[in-house]
Every structure is written in C-alpha cells, then in structure tokens.
Amino acid sequence: MTTMTDHEPQGTSVPATDAALAVHNLWKIFGKGGDKILGTPDAELPRPELKEKTGCVVGVKDVSFEVAQGEVFVVMGLSGSGKSTLVRCLTRLIEPTAGEVIVDGEDVTKANESRLRELRRNHASMVFQHFGLLPHRQVIDNVGYGLEIRGVPKKERRAKAAEVVDLVGLSGYEFSYPDQLSGGMQQRVGLARALAGDPKLLLFDEPFSALDPLIRRDMQNEVIRLHHELRKTMVFITHDLAEALKLGDRILIMRDGEVVQVGTPDQIIGAPADEYVRDFTSEVPRSHVLTLKWVMHEPNGDAGDGPVLQADQIVKDAARVVLDHHGPCRVMDGDKLVGVVDDEDILRVVVAEEEAPA
Amino acid sequence: MTTVVAPPRAEAKEPPPPPAEPRHLPRWAWALIVIGVWIVVWAFTKGQDTLTLGAREHTQLQNDLTEFRNAVLASRDTNPFIQFTYQLGEWFKEAVEWCQRMISIPDFPRPVPQIGWLGVTAVAVWIGLAVAGWRIALLVAASFVSFGLFGYWSDSMDLLIVTFVSVSVAVLIGMPLAVLLGTTSRLGNSIINTILDIFQTMPTFVYLLPIVLFFGIGASAAVVCTLIYALPPLIRIAGHGIRSVPSTTIEATDSAGQTSWQRLRKVQLPMARKTIVVGLNQTIMAALSMATIAAYVDGPGLGQPVLQSLFKNDVGGAFVPGMLIVVMAVMLDRTTTAASEASEKAARGRINMRQRRIVLAVAAVPVLVALWMSRFYTWAAAFPENNLGPSVADAVNSFTEWFVDAFGGATEWFKNVITEALINPMQSLLAESPWYVTATAIMALALVLGGLRALMPTVICLIGIYIFGLWHDAMITLTMTMVGTVLVMVMALVFGVWMARRKSVDLLLRPLLDAGQTIPPFVYLIPMLALFGPTRFTAIVAGVIYAAPVAIKLVADGVAGVSSSTVEASRSTGATTWQEITKVQLPMSKGSIVLAANQGLLFMLSMAVIGGMVGAGALGYDVVLGFSRSEEWGKGAAAGITIVLIGIMLDRIARAAANQDPITHNPTRRPWWRSSMG
Q1: Which of A165, A203, A284, B559 has the fewest Cβ atoms within 10 Å of its own Cβ atom?
Q2: Is B156 part of any domain?
Q3: Who's near A70: CB < 8 A, 6+ residues apart?
C-alpha cells in the first residue's frame, strides 16, 4: 500500500500536547478473538480473506493521525471503509482493539469508566447522522441533555441551552418537539446539543448525509460559520468528496479500514497517492481546488512585471486576473518569487481539466 | 418499432413452460393416504383397545397424584415450601379482603363498607378524568352505575379488586424483568423468552389445579392464577418497547457521557412509555379474563354468579353478570388505551398541564363530598335496591325461550349437521380406533406434515398422554379441538380475505372483532348455552366464536400485507378475482394463515376445558370435577397435563409444518386474547 502521510507517525515520537487530538496505531477488529489476530501475519491479510479465515472483520487498521488545535479534519471514505468505526473509537462508543487516542494530553483508551464519562461530558461531543434526538423532550431540553446528566441545575442549563439554540439559529423553536421540525432543523438541534457542553473537540459522523442537497449546503455553511466563530477543533466524517473539500483543512482518505492518504484538499487533488484516490477525485473540478502552486511553471526570466498572485490562491479565483493580463503573472510565496502562470497554465486546468504537471 | 413489438405477441400465445414435474407426492397427498389407511384399519378394529376409563375409575398414576395432593395437604404445617406458599397466599388474601372491607363488603361493626358506591364511583370517575379525559370519565361513571343498578355491586367490586391486586403485583414483578429483557444480552433474553413461551401456550385451566394445591382456594388462588396469567404480556411487550429504542438515540446520548442508570431513566423508559402502557393494557385485560375464570377456584367476583347460573342452566341469570363483565372489560380497555394516548400527548406537550391541574383540583371537591356522604348516608353507601337485574334476567329467559321455540329447528338442524358430518365421524375415527392405531396414525401425519422435527415432540407427547391414562378422553377433546379449528379457519379465510379486499368491510368488522377480543372467553358460553343446550357442540361453537376474531384479523392483516404491486401485476395479466385470491394473495400470506390456524388450535383447546361443564365432557369435565371433589383431584391433574401435552403436540406439528420459527417470539404480535392495538 502506498501510504502518504504528512509526517510518519511513530507512536510517541510526536509530543502529544501540541495536538488537540492524536491517534496512534489504532486498530479495531470486530469478531471473537479479534485481539489475538493483532501482531500476527493474519492482521495484514485483506478483508475477505481474514473473514474467511477467522470470521473477524477489520474495521480500523493501524490508523494514525494528529489534529491541530482549531483544525477541521475530515475523514472520508466510501461506506464500509471504517470511517464511522474510527470516529466511534475516539470516544470509545466502540471499544478499540489496540492503539492510543490522546485527547488533551490524556490517553482515552486507558481511561476508566468514570474518567471516560468525564471526557465525554466535557471534552468531546458528537453529532450523528440520524440526529439521535429524544422525541419526548422539547428542543431546549434536548440541547440541555448533556448538561442535565452532568447535574447542572435546571435554571442554569436552560439559560445555557437557550444561548446555544440561538447560536445555531433556532430561536423561537425552543419549546418545539423534534418531530415538529424539519430534518435540517433537527440536525441543528443535534449540533446545539453538541455545542452546549462547550467541548474543545467536536466529532461529526456524516451529519448531513440524511439531508437533501440544499439543506445540506446550508448546514455546511453553518458549520463553517460556527468554526469561524468558535474555533473548535473538528473531526468530520463524510462520504461526500465535495463536502470534504469544502470543509476540510486536511482530509484523510480511508479504504478498507486503512489510511490511503492524508493531506490538504489541493494535495489530494494535485497529488493523489494512488489510483484509488485519483479515480475518486477525477470528477472534481480541479480549478476549484488546486492552488496556483500546482499550475505555475518555473520563472524563466519571463516574469517581468506581471500582477502578483499568492501561491495558495485557488486557480478559479486567480483565473480572471491572469486571463485579463495576457501575459505571465508572478506567483509569490510571501515575498519570494516561486513561479509564474500564464493563460495556458490556467486554461489547461479550467477548461481542459487536465492533470497538473506533477 | 413494430419488429420489437411483434415477438412478445407470438410468445404470449405459447403456454408458459410447464413447471418441473414434482419428484414426490405433495405432503397433503401423503396425509390423505395416511388417513385413508387409518380409516380402513379403523373399519376392522373399531371399539378394541380404546382405553376408555369410566366416570369414577382411576388409574394407578391418577391415584398416586391424589395421594400426592393428600400428602401435600397433610404436610401443610411442616413443609417449609407449603408454608411459604400459604403465607404468600395469606398476604394476597389479606390485601384482597382489606380492599373488600373498604368498598365491597360490610366492615364489621359497620353494616356497610367503609366507602359506599357513591364514593367509589366518584373516585373512579376522577381517576378516569385524570388519566384519560372527560369522555372516559363519563364511560367510567356509566359503567360503575350499571354495576349497582343491575344488582351486582359487590361482585363487580370484588372482580375489580382481584384484578387490581394481581396487576399491581404483576407490575412489581414484571417491570424489573421487562427492563432485564430489554437491556440484557441475547442469552438472558432467550431464557426469559422460553419461559414466557411455556406460560403463554398453556391453556388457562391448567394453572388452576396446582395453584389450588399450593395456595388453597378463594381469593389467594384467584390472585395467584391471575397474576401468573397476566405477567407474560407485560414483560414481553414492555421489554420489547425498551429494546426497540433506536440505537442511534442510545449512542447519541451515551456520547454525552451518561451513566447506565441515566440511560434507563431518561432515555429508555420515556421512549418506551407508549409500548409499556400497551403492555399494561394487555396485562389488565388478561387479568380480568383470568379473574373471571378464577370463580372455578372460588375466587370472588362476577365470575361466581355466571358460573352458578351456568351450572343451573339459567341463561338469564348468567346473562346479567356476563354483560357486566363485558362492560367492565370495555371500560378498562378504553381507559387504558385512552390513557396511553393521553400520556403520549402530555409527553409531547399537547396538553396544557396547568389548566389540567386546575380542572382536576376543582373536580376533586365533589369527589371528597361524595366520599364523605357515602360514609354517612345509607343511600350513598349501599346501592338502592331495585328490580332491574332480575327483570332483565327474566326478559332474557323468556326471549331465549321464544327464540328457541321459533328458531330451535334451525339451530338444531345446524347442530345436527355439524355433529353428524364432522364431529361424530372424526371422534369415531380418533377415539374408537385402538389406541395404537390412532397413535401410529398421528405419528405418521406428524412425520408427513412436519418431518422429523415434528415427529419427536409428537412421540413424546403421545407417550405422555398414554401414561396419564386418559387416552379416550384426550382423543375426544382432540376431536373437538380439530373440528373447532376447521370451522375457525373457514371463517378466518372467508372473512379475512373479504376484509382485506374491501376497505368498507374492514371498517365494519374490525371494531366488532376488537370488542370480541376484549371479552373474557367465559362469557361466550352464555348465549351458546341458550341456543344449543349443554352439548359438545355448544363448547365447540363458543370456542369458535372465541377464537375467530384473532384468526380473522391475522388472515386479514396477512392478505392485506401482500404487496399491492404483486397483486397489480397479477391483475394486469388478466387473472380473475378467484385466481387472484387463490394464486397470489393466499399463498403469499401463508405465514399469517398458519399462525391463525395455530392460534385457533390453542384457543379451541382452552375453550374445550372452559366448556367442560356445559357438555364438552372429556378432559374438560375431568378437570372441572377435579376442582370440586378431592378424590378426583388426581384425575383432574392428569387431565390438565394431558391438555398441555395435546397443546404442545399440535403446536409443534403446526410450527414444523409451516417450517417457521417459534411464533410467540415476536412480541409485536399481540398475544392471543387481543391481537391488534390499532
């Protein structure tokens, strides 16, 4: 497997305190005796053969990554790729077979039951695909549920819940019941419930998959807005590449429980790790994702005095300037000239959708 | 384009390829062969070795059972187990008697109970208002007044008391078990389910004999048997409700860091609330039906006057208390159903709680006044005497006489046709063949219909029936059960298909069937006795009427459940209505039909016993006699066990024949006394 990651995760070699979340060599093997398979050659077998041989299924296979404070980290893959299992292992809704999950410097996998509850209550909240709201409670009490089980007094938790309900744009619906709301609004309730406890880490498990496309777009924008306002660290699971590219600071692509590639959106599109990723991303309009860095060429002294563009600018946004100029434009990384782009560089990507020269 | 259309037309004229010739004869053909051989053998051997046991004769085993009973009774003061059960019974009895002194019998030195009819009615109406709204309150008021008006106030109160004492204990025991069933692993589940299966497939009467032995007769036995009978639906339905809480919700709330106790109290129980109330409704209805039957063991309540009148063949006398039982059943059913709806509404905030509290508080004032008056004024304490009950009874009696005079010929003809055409030949074949011939034939049929899976339990049950020494009686009861089941299935197929195909028929019949299912089985005997007198046929018809609603609804739901696109597809091929029914709808709803037949069998079997004293004879009579005569206890117990064995045998054969999993494991399916919640 060609696995390309930003940094080779080597257990504890990276100080865990830097990251909001660090996952080291995480495994989940479903089935009886799954823990015994670990470390044997069987663990390296492809899924169907392992199933045939032992009856066990690998959900998450030796996954490592780190998420920085305030980052939106997207895990994407098709159904069955293990992404939902992965996110559940982070707060041990599914018990991982092996590995470390470090949240705020603490290894979740070693926490005892009450410590784990503590962690779920205060550090990491989750938003679910099917909302998981309590139908017998009003919106405000759904939102306040996390506070209620922590033992926050009613008055206080209602005040806090009302604040969060307002934040997600549900003012006026505090006393509605979930079944009186549309799907998008129900997911706002789910979002508010996750935010109410003021956790540092937000986990999203395909939160918008059950919504129709227009509502989904609204909700994505809502997440972007909340991220700008609150600067929470987010781990976002999705099977929708467009969603991943839209939201993610970095994207982790999974297949059959394994990490295929980790990188920023333009890295994924510009330099797919293998055929799988290349195939996966083939439909994406490159000009919407790639930055100038991926399309520029070496400055052969023809830079002259063309307009200055930044290397991390998206091609689509820079296209107008370059095409208007009728000549090479300078691409700068800060103050340093790193390359030039001309009409042909832009058109090759925008119109012909060709591969960027590697 | 035309070239594309042409080929199908050519094909349409060709007949569809004939299905491959079956390599073996179908099962029903084998069954016919077995029966044919059986009839031939019967013709030569009938009357030999039928194992007939005379009315007062006992086998050694039966005498041993009687001895066992005597030994148990003798050891009452020394045996710790008996002491325990008697102590338990004593507590139940005290609870019932305390309630009786409060509302139904004079509490010495008072000449009347502590609370008179006016106070009890007022409190009941207030409760109806509180749990279900003013319509139900009116229904409750009308019901309670009718109890007094027809002269059965204290019997009605006794029945209510026995029902509610049993239900309270059932809830205390059942809810923890339901939580266990709803939250434990698969193993715990299958253990509880198996036990519940056994309890639910046992015909009602079989509980009574051992209970009488260990708890004595009267209120204690009534409470215990009602309790045992009413417990399974609560455990099963409430457990199912808790288990059915969506796992996404559980997961989402778990991720917020709740403890398991918080999960149960704040998520699982509230979300299962509606199902739990449905379970409670079922439990109350089952309890009422059993508390009525507990009259056989001298349990207090409305069952007693019914039973006494039935013994005397007094239809009018049985009619009035029977009618009041129906009134009470309808009242309890409507109240609990409405309460479940109201609680659901309240949980969704669609009821103004503040306004409701004020209404209830205001309504409490006249209730307190009524309570106070009922303690100090005679007219409010004891229901004023009137002649309504007896005059209704007389009217019913004269109506019955007139009816029998006018239509006796028709009913008699119907009875004779069924008796001559169905009951007698079958009974003759089953009971008059030598026992080994019948046993062999039954085993062969089990093998043909259900394969080895059916043969094993059949052999074991037949051996059991032989050992307990009531072979001849068992075969007669088996005949009645089979005949009844055939009649039930005919009705179920006709009405079920009709209901499924015509919405209007469904709308018309379903409420009637629902009402039919709330009525305790006991009550069905009364009109049948009036029409047909005390014979086997009476018990069979009562059983058919008792079993038909369930079977009809099962078939109707099954046929209606056939995918409409399949039916449409068949119609588009030009099938006639008859073809549509026989070739599409019935085969595709086979599961429901087999289930209906299975339920019909079990219903008929329990009715065969209840009908024991209106001429059903055979095992039913043996059981009933076992209650009343101590020297017949052993034979009664043997008859009870034989009934269970017949039930298990028929159940296993039917299941194996349908090749399906244990049917009672599906808790969403309503248990047999009432099968749909609407």
Answers
A1: A284
A2: yes
A3: A20, A231, A232, A233
Please indicate, yes or no, if residue B97 is contained in any of the structural domains.
Answer: yes
Domain boundaries, chain A: 287-350
**Scanning every residue of chain A, which has its alpha carbon at the shortest distance from the alpha carbon of B344?**
A136
A136 vs B256: CB contact, 8 Å cut-off?
Answer: no
Nearest to A223 by CA among A261, A197, A194, A180: A194
pLDDT in tens, B99-126: 988 888 887 777 888 888 888 899 999 9
Q: What is the pLDDT of residues B617-638, one digit of tens each?
A: 788 888 878 877 777 888 888 8
Pairing of strands A329-333, A308-310: parallel
Residues of A in contact with B254 (CB under 8 A): 93, 120
Residue of B251, B253, B271 lying closest to A145 (CB–CB): B253
Sequence-ordered strand ranges (E) for A223-345 = 233-238, 250-255, 258-263, 308-310, 329-333, 336-341
ipTM for this model = 0.76
Structural domain includes residue B98: yes
Cβ pair A117:B249 closer than 8 A:
no
DSSP state, A291?
B
Q: What is the mean pLDDT, run by run of 10 residues, along chain A of 358 residues? A: 41 54 90 78 80 84 90 89 90 89 88 88 89 88 90 91 90 89 90 90 90 88 90 91 89 90 87 84 79 78 73 80 80 81 78 57
Structurally, chain B folds into a number of domains equal to 1
Q: Do A160 and A196 meet the contact criterion of CB atoms below 8 Å apart?
A: yes
Residue A302's CB is within 10 A of a number of other CB atoms, namely 12
For A287-350, CATH gives: 3.90.1280.20
β pairing state of A57-68 and A233-238: unpaired
CB of B352 within 8 Å of a chain A CB? The answer is no
Residue B283 belongs to domain spanning: 80-114+150-351
* pLDDT tens column, B376-430: 887 877 777 888 888 888 888 888 888 878 877 888 888 888 888 888 888 888 8
In a domain? residue B663: no
A159–chain B Cβ distance below 8 A for any pair? no
The alpha carbon of residue A174 is apart from the nearest alpha carbon of chain B, in Å, by 13
Minimum Cα–Cα distance from A194: chain B residue: B256
CA B523, distance to chain mean position in Å, is: 12
